[in-house]
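User: Fold this; tokens only.

Assistant: Input:
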Amino acid sequence: MTTNGPPSLTESIVRGIGYLLIGTSGVWVLFAPPRTIEGAAGTLLTTTWGIFLLAALIACVATVWRRYRVEYAVLPIMAGGVLIYAATLLALVPGTITRGPQALLMTALSCAIIARLASLHRLVNAWKEREWMQSS
């Protein structure tokens, strides 16, 4: 069965909740930053990925309001934040093997976000003349 229309309301709400949780983690990182890597480089990395994760809050609102082009625009920023955190965790694995599962989970989340970006890219290009895409 192929779907030729926008995602269902349930899909939008569930994806919005996921984005809300990612955005909340960005707020958390900025107000109570983990000390994953010490020093100025660690502070810069942590602040950067925290700020990038805040884009998920925009994606949350856009998804629930079904503004797919807005979601499409902020996903690369959000993906950047998740990828920075995944790379940081992967760099720590040799010295702290217990970071392995966290690194793999963040890498998997990065893949899911990039897959959604690819899906939206296809939809934006295929449906840009349709009414449901012009509402944003």
